Amino acid sequence: MGAIGGDEMAQWDNADGGEVANGAAGKLEKILVSVRLRPLSDKEVARGDPSEWECISDTTVIARSAFPDRPTAPTAYSFDRVFRSDCDTKEVYEQGAKEVALSVVSGINSSIFAYGQTSSGKTYTMTGITECTVSDIYDYIGRHEERAFVLKFSAIEIYNEVVRDLLSSENTSLRLWDDAEKGTYVENLKEVILRDWNHLKELISVCEAQRRTGETYLNENSSRSHQILKLTIESSAREFLGKDKSTTLAASVNFVDLAGSERASQALSAGARLKEGCHINRSLLTLGTVIRKLSKVRNGHIPYRDSKLTRILQPSLGGNARTAIICTMSPARSYMEQSRNTLLFASCAKEVVTNAQVNVVMSDKALVKHLQRELARLESELRCPATYSSLESLVREKDNHIRKMEKEIKELKAQRDLAQSRLQDLLQVVGDNHVSKQELYLRCAPAM
Ligand SMILES: Nc1ncnc2c1ncn2[C@@H]1O[C@H](COP(=O)(O)OP(=O)(O)OP(=O)(O)O)[C@@H](O)[C@H]1O
């Protein structure tokens, strides 16, 4: 990876043809955070659970009454955007995710997260956001025939701290590795090159079918794992394809549908569901700690390594990526405390800063050319005696210069010692005989 090249830079604009991409310097920006209220569910309505939360503007959500256990806690919370329960997912996408997600076509990594308690609408929201993003990406590709695109797709779930490939029918646990260049990556993860949008739709359905879900008291179809769908887009200007100048922009967009936090007492969970709930809550707790620490200090210790989720998502949390988080909430009074926790998470998240860069990869051909040139230069240096002899004469010249300087230093030191001993003599004379200033001057003058 490196800075975007001059010729290619001129060819490349941002998703809407406006600003020029910002090169390798990166851009510091805060995570875009929005909150989405879902409508009361049938269950909530049936048990007479009233709607407690209200969006009083496009950016502020308030609790209508004080929190039962914390009467002095704030009841108003502001974010980049809040969405009422009657907003459709398209609107949430347009205002809460689109700009960040589509950075991927300009070579900038991006991540869209859904965070919230169980049954608050994360999967509902992320499914729609993924579809809208992919639709816009294919639309963009259709409008930019001057570039050749390659799209790759991979998908994992993290279930009870085990990473699994959602595109593989083998139920094996995948290991995480750290690489100086790639960062943390999943070993042996399948990455499929996409033929078209229908191909991607098929693969997403495979993931849906493979993902661990289970019925809980709070959600008939509750996701019991964290799911990360990753779409990688590589593109090169057709004009430079196969030429030395050709470089490739490469970036990924992650769609992260987290498992929901839950209270065992409210989820009425036991056995396997309870164990899952404990793992889910533990990894979400680490995510919360990471976000809280990042919101305060950037250079202290951040416990990314305490969970697989935060290890994998490290670049999206304060690294080389643009990130948007959509926090989902039930408006029901009975979940007031959980909703407040979601809003506290969202409040910390909006202080976190990421540093996204345009990712440029040299084409294989350009890389091979560069290496061939370097090899040829080294070979010629080895073969050519003239080059050797010129190096030898340079070393000889430097040696002579050093010897000359050492001699000068020696002479200067001798002069200094002589001057010091004369001074000693004179000071003695001054002390003994009160010599006149004139005489002192004459005696101090260096010998010519
Ligand atoms: N904005 C919305 N409008 C209408 N229905 C919604 C909305 N959000 C969620 N729902 C419905 O609420 C139910 C729970 O939603 P969903 O499964 O997306 O929650 P979740 O947060 O992913 O839950 P879990 O963490 O348990 O997997 C689903 O039946 C879904 O269709």
From TrEMBL:
GO terms for biological process: microtubule-based movement. It holds the Pfam family Kinesin. InterPro entries: Kinesin-like_fam, Kinesin_motor_CS, Kinesin_motor_dom, Kinesin_motor_dom_sf, P-loop_NTPase. Residues 30-352 form the Kinesin motor domain. GO terms for molecular function: ATP binding; microtubule binding; microtubule motor activity. The keyword Membrane does not apply. SMART domains: KISc. PROSITE patterns: KINESIN_MOTOR_1, KINESIN_MOTOR_2. Belongs to the TRAFAC class myosin-kinesin ATPase superfamily. Kinesin family. KIN-7 subfamily. This is Kinesin-like protein. The lineage of its organism: Eukaryota, Viridiplantae, Streptophyta, Embryophyta, Tracheophyta.
